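User: I'll paste a sequence; please echo it back and then give the predicted structure.

Assistant: Echoing your sequence first, then the prediction.
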Amino acid sequence: MSETTARRGRPATVDRDRVAATALRLFTDEGFGNVTMDDVARACGVARRTLFRLFPSKAAMVWGGSGEARETITGALDAAGDVGLPEALDLVRDAFVASSTFPPEALEVTRQRLCLIAADEELLSWGTSSIGTSAVLVAEFLGRAEGAAEPSLRARSLAAACAAANFAALVWWAQHAPERDPARVVEEALTHLLEGARTWAAQA
């Protein structure tokens, strides 16, 4: 059924995930910079206007899972309530692990996304705000655990380090160890990172 025909009755439903998966295959096979939005629309069999309604840009297709990850981190930290610093560090690790737990059918798409992001400076730059948002969420949580009105320098620094380590671990998984569970890779990376922070937690 064509879009023209569909408009005469009930609007056709376009599968957003299918469109993103098709775009990722094109980007992977032909190079992110060599594929246009028109190319993606043709490959998916949708109108250009429909594609832009789903995704404002090519980068948005690649970073499509970042919103869900932030929501998972936010939910995990909000559910924790008021805790002390030692426990807060474990909860931060667990929140990132939860955000890196993907259903089996999403693993390959996630791997493709991460490989594309790591290989393209434009894509990486586009998503920097997403990583920064996660760091802000964690810094605020650690600030509450400190009992301070505002997160301290240590809390902000540690939060930024955790967000960066989470992303670095996922990229490493995508590029070098796709046979492993990405959540366990993130857990390993953050456990190593937070070992040093326990001295701070004990002294605070």
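The CA atoms of residues 173 and 180 lie 7 Å apart. The domain at 66-203 is CATH 1.10.357.10 (Tetracycline Repressor; domain 2).
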